[in-house]
Design a protein that fits this description.
Elements lengths: L1 H4 L13 E9 L4 E2 L8 H16 L7 E13 L14 E10 L4 E2 L7 E6 L4 H6 L1 H4 L2 H21 L20
Parallel strand pairs: 1-3, 2-3
Antiparallel strand pairs: 3-4, 4-5, 4-6
């Protein structure tokens, strides 16, 4: 549970150098639903993700360059009520994210492809045991997945600091510079 409390919107944002949000665009018109999932509409996903992205990236007011974020919902599963302990399904959201340098008019993703991000809802005491299908409403599941997805997008951007005028991260497989 301690990990769930970390990275809330009241924490200071990650260092993203020159990043300032120009705008975020969310599309969900080509999403797929896992057959056992609760239903959700395109409009519900777009609204929840837009709100989560705006809240998370609206905190970056000191950047010197505008960057735009695109998120396409690829698929989802909202956990239906299950049998406690025996079958407590998890909700999941799969998106493809892109980041665009507004001034340079170029996509920063390698090969111009979206980064696939898979998000699971965080578990609390009740949902860990019973499953969120029994403990959360459909809208609560959507909002939770949107929040976690916005956090995952932020982590992905932080993993690519060179996009925002910061030194590249030294990866575990790389030798540190001498």
């Amino acid at each position: 549970m301690a990990a769930c409390a970390k990275n809330e919107l009241t924490d200071p944002p990650a260092n993203l150098g020159s990043f300032q949000l120009g705008f975020a665009v969310v599309v969900a018109d080509n999403m797929k639903k896992v057959p056992i999932s609760r239903d959700a509409t395109v409009e519900e996903w777009e609204a929840a993700l837009q709100k989560a992205l705006d809240a998370r990236f609206g905190r970056y007011q000191n950047g010197t360059k505008l960057f735009n974020i695109g998120v396409a919902v690829d698929g989802y599963a909202l956990a239906p009520p299950g049998i406690p302990i025996v079958a407590s399904p998890k909700s999941i959201l799969v998106v493809s994210a892109t980041v665009f340098d507004d001034a340079a008019q170029e996509m920063l993703n390698p090969d111009g492809k979206g980064k696939q991000i898979i998000s699971f809802e965080r578990r609390d005491g009740e949902s860990a045991l019973l499953g969120s299908g029994l403990t959360r409403t459909r809208q609560e599941q959507i909002d939770e997945l949107a929040f976690v997805t916005a956090l995952r997008v932020e982590e992905w951007l932080a993993d690519n600091p060179e996009w925002f005028g910061l030194p590249p991260l030294v990866r575990a497989t790389e030798a540190p510079p001498r």
